[in-house]
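Reply to dn_fold:

You asked what the input looked like. This is it:
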Amino acid sequence: MFDELEKYKRNGHFFFEKNNNLREICNAPKSGIGVYLIYALKKGKIELVYIASTGKITQNGMIKTRKGGIYDSLVNGKQFGELRNRAWNKQIIIEEIDALDIYWYETFDKNNTDIPAMTEGKIIQRFYEIYGKLPKWNKEY
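and this is what came back:
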């Protein structure tokens, strides 16, 4: 769906199911910056529910990232008012989701210099053009 993500060679994904420990299963890099997309797998259907980015570029061109990179943003970031590990477990129950499929892409590295927020914006814009709304878990952009 998002051809612009294909150029990022440092990427990966993992599944999160009810009662998983996000800290143990997350395979995102502990350095680096980029974007991540969360898909809900439910009753044989796949729905993109969240698009986000982590990391910034400072005025002098230096990378500004969380201490633990994309991994830290996923594992220690908050969603629905609490840490993702707990929040995702609750959402899986509330929305009767079978599993979450989390894809991450490092957008700023030795091969690419795409600012994460810019990439996030492009993806959200494309989603909006297709569906006329934001992904379910994105409250605003």
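The chain has a mean pLDDT of 94.
Hope that clears it up.
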